């Protein structure tokens, strides 16, 4: 068995384990709220990086 096949099997096993641990699906409104929260966090991080770049003269 090659290294890449072994790695692929490990990923597949890990994915199966994670699916067994997580609930089948989030309610729609909970999933939407989680997505919006993640998006706001990403936007905030992006703004902070942009500000620090321009403040340090990287722009």
In short:
This protein is mainly alpha-helical and 59 residues long. It has helices at residues 3-21, 28-55.
Overall description:
Helices cover 80% and strands 0% of the residues. It is an all-alpha fold and 59 residues long. The longest helix has 28 residues. The chain is flat and about 50 Å long.
Low-confidence stretches: none
Radius of gyration from the CA trace?
20 Å
If you average the pLDDT, what whole number results?
A: 81
Considering DSSP H and I runs of 4 or more, what fraction of the residues is helical?
A: over 70%
Euclidean distance between termini CA atoms: 50 Å
What characterizes the major β-sheet? none
Which sequence of SSEs, written as H and E, runs from N to C?
Answer: HH
**Backbone shape:** flat
The percentage of residues in β strands lies in under 5%
Number of strands: 0
Task: Count every helix, treating DSSP H or I runs of 4 or more residues as helices.
Answer: 2
Instruction: Kindly name the structural category.
Output: mainly alpha
Features:
single chain, 2 helices, mainly alpha, 59 residues
